[in-house]
Specification:
Length: 324
């Protein structure tokens, strides 16, 4: 690592809307936006108070500008713009996936030479393999063509009548099941590229449940989880075979999945490559990972005035990549 490394977290807070979304079985954009508007002010006040930092002493404000749900992103971006205007400070725009990548990067030991790294990012909105050549330098090698891995977990949870968010519930149920009970497809494993697809797998689960009344749900959960993890591991191995990397990174909400963590660890051992996984508490979305990127990007000169920062619902990570 080249010193961009460790940051000190003075305070952090998370306002989860999981309970609210559980009632509707998923995220309803208007509801999410209303909740964001309600909590953002008190949340900022709370972390500032806990950090004991004077607002005037802040150098810059880092904010996730995208990708994501526009109504929710817009609330965060507007809050950052207002603060930046009032304090006369610059804004550092951060791409959501940069945050996930960096949460794994910063768990690497400081003596480790990490780049080039291969990052597998698995969340509710994204499934991506990314080549990371340096801090802030990314190239997407493959991504999902339809559902993200976490989205597949959430949809299968719904089929199994489990509450939202489904990932943790499905993996808990899977612990008691037989992963070989159903031979679900390993999507895209032979597609010849590094893309993923999970919507067909979800349909296979739907048919398995329909055609096997009285089936043991834990067997379905275990077989589904095995299929998702196998296809993630197969594509990661193919990416490793195609190029030379110093390290392997795993992050995003689904990186909390125990089977995936174990299989990635096995793969890294087989391939003789160092693996860094985001700490459990930073796998899911959080502000610390955005602050981490913010600090690194600020040092690299990525600053903007409040007038020039907008939320972008669909923005590729390469738009944030420095050339080199
Ligand atoms: O990164 P994240 O918090 O939000 C997005 O950027 O989407 O990821 C959330 C996703 C959800 O789909 C959730 O079901 C999934 O991560 N997830 C899991 C586990 N924990 C969370 N999926 C599988 N196994 C888990 N243990
Ligand atoms: Zn995320």
């Amino acid at each position: 690592m080249k010193g961009e490394g460790k940051i000190t977290v003075l305070a952090q807070a998370l306002a989860s809307q999981v309970d609210i979304h559980a009632e509707t079985g998923g995220v309803v954009p208007d509801v999410a936006a209303r909740e964001h508007t309600k909590v953002i002010g008190p949340l900022i006040r709370k972390v500032i108070r806990e950090s004991r930092v004077k607002l005037q002493d802040v150098d810059a404000i880092a904010i996730t500008v995208g990708p994501g749900l526009m109504p929710a992103l817009a609330v965060g971006v507007q809050a950052a713009r207002t603060l930046a205007f009032a304090l006369n400070k610059p804004i550092v725009s951060v791409h959501h996936i940069e945050g996930h990548i960096t949460s794994a990067l910063l768990s690497a030991e400081e003596s480790t030479d990490v780049f080039p790294a291969l990052a597998l990012i698995v969340s509710g909105g994204h499934t991506m393999l990314i080549r990371v050549d340096d801090w802030l330098r990314y190239r997407v090698l493959g991504q999902t063509r339809d559902d993200a891995a976490g989205e597949a977990f959430d949809k299968v949870a719904r089929l199994l009548k489990l509450p939202y968010p489904g990932g943790p519930q499905v993996s808990k149920l899977a612990e008691q099941g037989n992963p070989e009970a159903f031979a679900f497809p390993r999507p895209m494993v032979h597609s010849g590229d590094l893309d993923f697809s999970f919507s067909g797998l979800k349909t296979a689960v739907l048919y398995a449940l329909r055609d096997n009344p009285g089936v043991n749900n834990s067997d379905v959960a275990a077989s589904f989880q095995a299929a998702v993890v196998d296809s993630l591991i197969a594509k990661t191995k193919q990416a490793l075979d195609q190029d030379t990397y110093k390290t392997l990174l795993l992050a995003g909400g689904v990186a909390a999945n125990k089977l995936l963590r174990d299989k990635m660890t096995e793969l890294a051992t087989q391939e003789n490559i160092e693996l860094w996984i985001a700490p459990l508490e930073l796998c899911g979305d959080n502000a610390v990972m955005i602050g981490q990127v913010g600090l690194i990007a600020l040092t690299a000169g990525r600053v903007a005035s409040w007038q020039d920062v907008d939320a972008q619902a669909r923005v590729p990570i390469e738009a944030f990549s420095v050339r080199g």
